[in-house]
Amino acid sequence: GCPCWHRRPQPGPIQVHIPQVHRRPAQRHALPCPARPWRAVSTVLLPVPNHPCLGLSRKRGSTTAYQALLPTNIIKRWIFKNLPYPYGVADIDPADMIDLDECGLFVEHAQPGHGKAYIGCRVRDAGPYNHSTKFTLTMAIEGGQNGGRWYQLEQKAGTTVVDFLEFVEDILDDIGPGTPANRKCFTMDNLLAHKHPTVVAEILLRGHRLAFRSPYYAVDGPIEYFFNTLQHDLSLLLHQVRDEDDLQLAVQQIIADVNNFAGYFDNIFA
After folding, report:
1. In which residue ranges of the chain is pLDDT below 70?
2. Is-contact 212 220, C-beta < 8 A?
């Protein structure tokens, strides 16, 4: 016998075959049961013991954007990365790109679950900040060596068209009108606020370019990788964050410590 059977079993999914009774004889498209020909076999999921000798292990489900594998989206991604402007960005220098996006920063809690107190005394601690406070970080990074960056960190639920338009206008005022020697290409995802005609017209009328990344491919966004850096660095500073002001200072410090963002662009477009 297998030496692992005495261990405590753990439930895990596996496909097993269970016969189900049909009123009519087995259909042609169903697999007949050898023992009883009037039954058909169907596949269901049942919890079974987790056993390494059977090659079984528990898996945790995850959400996947299956839409990214649709043929139309695969073609859109190929066009974005391999064709020249205005169809793609193959002929645009990464140093002339400005990538924009938003991310949410959720302040859940910073209160220890255990501690010490005198016997018979109840501990009442309100915590450093409110539960589930959300900040929205709207940010743009430039692919050149100058390390251009623009961001807004506000306590709000999300980004509206008005908010995003004002943010884009601030960037355009800073970089100046587009000329052959100074023409930037804004890249962003397909959020409705990003694709609003007012936003598109403002960028193009200022003489700059605009290219939308292919849907469901966040891996093509340089700023998405910086958001990952921001999350990592924030996790190292959580012991110093006691309120909302500390959180904003920590985010500002992390952004200021980056010399330039050229590496984030070269990793995708080089």
Report:
1. 1-65, 108-116, 123-132, 270
2. no
Q: Please, is 21 exposed, middle or buried when counting C-beta atoms within 10 Å of its C-beta (0-12, 13-18, 19+)?
A: exposed
Q: How far is CA 5 from the centre of its chain?
A: 41
Q: How many residues does the chain have?
A: 270
What would you report as the CA-atom Rg of the chain, rounded to the nearest whole angstrom?
Answer: 27
Alpha-carbon gap, residue 99 to 263, rounded angstroms: 13
Report the DSSP pairing between strands 97-107 and 133-142: antiparallel
Say what the pTM is: 0.70
φ, ψ at 254 (rounded to 5°)? -65, -45
pLDDT in tens, 213-250: 999 999 999 999 999 999 999 989 888 887 788 889 99
